[in-house]
From TrEMBL:
Belongs to the otopetrin family. The chain crosses the membrane at residues 45-66, 78-97, 117-140, 152-170, 182-202, 257-278, 299-325, 337-361, 381-404, 416-437, 498-517, 529-549. One of its GO terms (cellular component) is plasma membrane. It is found in: Cell membrane. GO terms for molecular function: proton channel activity. It comes from Certhia brachydactyla (short-toed tree-creeper). This is OTOP3 protein. It is a multi-pass membrane protein. InterPro entries: Otopetrin. Keywords: Cell membrane, Hydrogen ion transport, Ion channel, Ion transport, Membrane, Transmembrane, Transmembrane helix, Transport.
Length: 564
């Protein structure tokens, strides 16, 4: 079975090993290929309908919990999601131990699917989600006298589900399964639906956040010596279940709030990988679909992009640390918000200009478009467009709130400029990346010479090298770099510089909101305009999509860099 998994997709496949799909509606088709194609469409349709019904059922539960907390409680929603998680666990285990080990089960593997950066994201966000569940279990255990036992069982099942799913996606994200097509499609779709419902619950459920927020307000009230009646009614309701004055309890609270966005991010990433696997069920990859040489990332032909990008990363890291120190205090200063917004107002126009220049160069180039069928690339385009809606939507909500209050005030005007520039930057970057993803890869001049020099360097590294030989090797490497850079056309050189600069900018713009910098929620302007609960839902809907957009943009920009 392991030999079947490792079979190269480019190798010719014996047709006797292919399991053509069958479906009772199309059993009278004259051609085997036609019956297989119709059966594949029917399997996708029925599995999609199954997922749609599961999502609607879960959405109805979650909506009922929001609008009628007496009839449907949060515990009822957790029970439903726990049942779905257990079903997904059974299917994943069956796939790992049964389906994937059948003879000729995985004859093909999609080289474009399951890139290392997205599988690494699954592990990173999965690890953070596990820690989040640990903090939730610890917090509920300390307050067991006023908490339901479901609040301990649900995250415990969640830890097992996250571990199993992460292992499954790491090892099998490239599979083009050729057996048990319909059962595999249904299993994948139920798993996608479960992750979507977990994301929807995370976006809309602010119970624990309100509880922690009320306790922080209670501390501020005591510090200011105010009466309890000056606070919202939910403060008095949640003080009955107050975290005792213990350091470990405060750690659980802070850890939960810090890691909360990672859980929503994990659900979105898993949905994207599982969708590609669902599209690849029964897919047979022909020889011309498989690249003969896998593109490799090499830091050659770029000078200014890394310099400017590194400067943006260093300045952004300083702004982020300054913001984190100031924003965590009870009364954050206005100056830190001014610095934060000013950094974005300088960086976003620069990124937009670079993206526009890159798009113009793409239009000037006479490079052929890649029109081959590629589910991974199609999904990348959809995810870039869809994930950008998170930041664009939040920006428009902010624009309405700021214009309706006082747009001439300094902080409001900076926040308004930030929102407008963010919309423009998302649009221009999407156009540049999507256009670049559809360009054919061009082989660099002098590639054969570079390969020979790499082989020579590997041969040298296998034996002891004297100081003189080491100096010669460094000189050869430098000359090779200069040779490659000078042979690049100016268009491709500029494209590589722009792509690398945008990669580093998107990395720092991913790090800042991921690890706790949320001025759009913490400055209080939009929150006071829309109300706490409404703005909580808007931010928790848009923020994870925005973080996912930055992370996904890095992968797309690296692909543009390699193809240039």
């Amino acid at each position: 079975c392991h030999r079947c998994k490792s079979t190269s997709a480019s190798a010719p496949t014996d047709t006797s090993k292919i399991h053509y799909e069958k479906f009772w509606l199309y059993r009278h088709c004259s051609s085997v290929q036609q019956r297989d194609q119709q059966a594949q469409k029917a399997g996708q349709l029925f599995s999609g309908l199954l997922a749609m019904n599961v999502v609607f059922l879960g959405s109805a539960f979650i909506s009922s919990m929001i609008f009628n907390k007496v009839a449907i409680t949060l515990a009822d929603v957790w029970i439903l999601l726990s049942i779905l998680k257990v079903l997904c666990l059974f299917w994943i285990i069956y796939y790992l131990l049964g389906t994937s080990r059948q003879p000729h089960a995985v004859l093909y593997r999609d080289s474009h699917a399951g890139a290392i950066w997205i599988r690494g994201s699954v592990l990173l966000f999965g690890s953070c989600s596990i820690l989040l569940n640990v903090f939730q279990i610890g917090y509920s255990t300390i307050l067991i006298h006023c908490k339901s036992r479901v609040e301990i069982v649900f995250p415990s099942i969640g830890i097992l589900f996250i571990c199993t799913q992460a292992y499954f996606l790491w090892h099998h994200s490239k599979d083009c399964i050729q057996v048990q097509h319909n059962f595999t499609r249904c299993g994948l779709m139920v798993t996608i639906a479960t992750n979507l419902l977990l994301w929807l619950l995370a976006v809309t459920n602010d119970t624990l956040h309100v509880e922690i927020e009320s306790q922080l307000r209670e501390v501020e009230r005591r510090f200011a010596g105010k009466a309890p009646s000056s606070h919202p009614h939910w403060c008095n309701e949640t003080t009955l279940c107050t975290c005792p004055n213990m350091t470990i309890c405060k750690v659980f609270q802070k850890g939960y709030i810090l890691l909360y966005p990672f859980n929503t991010e994990y659900c979105l990433v898993c949905c994207s990988v599982l969708y590609v696997m669902w599209k690849n069920v029964g897919r047979r990859i022909s020889h011309h679909h498989v690249p003969h040489t896998k593109p490799k990332f090499k830091l050659q032909g770029v000078v200014f992009g890394p310099l400017l990008g590194t400067s943006a990363v260093i300045i952004g890291a300083c702004v982020f640390m300054m913001y984190q120190i100031q924003a965590t205090s009870l009364v954050p200063s206005r100056q830190v918000f001014v610095i934060y917004y000013s950094y974005y107002i300088v960086l976003l126009p620069l990124m937009s200009v670079c993206a526009v220049i890159g798009t113009i160069i793409h239009a000037l180039e006479k490079k052929e478009l890649d029109t081959l069928k590629n589910p991974t690339r199609s999904l990348d385009v959809v995810l870039l467009m869809g994930a950008a809606l998170g930041q664009i939507g939040m920006s428009y909500f902010s624009i309405v709130a700021l214009v309706a209050t006082d747009p001439r005030e300094l902080l409001n005007s900076l926040a308004l400029s930030y929102s407008v520039l963010l919309i423009f930057q998302n649009i221009t970057q999407n156009v540049f990346v999507i256009d670049g993803l559809h360009r054919r890869r061009v082989t660099l001049p002098g590639k054969d010479e570079d390969t020979k020099e790499e082989q020579n360097r590997e041969a040298y590294s296998q034996r002891r090298v004297s100081v003189l030989e080491l100096g010669q090797e460094i000189r050869k490497a430098s000359l090779s770099y200069i040779h490659t850079y000078s042979h690049l056309s100016w268009k491709r050189r500029v494209l590589r510089e722009i792509s690398f600069f945008l990669v580093l900018c998107n990395i720092i713009l991913w790090v800042m909101p991921t690890f706790g910098a949320h001025p759009i929620f913490e400055n209080g302007m939009e929150r006071s305009f829309y109300g706490y609960s409404t703005w909580f839902v808007i931010v928790n809907f848009g923020l994870p999509l925005g973080v996912f957009y930055r992370m996904h943009s890095v992968g797309g920009l690296l692909e543009v860099y390699v193809t240039a």
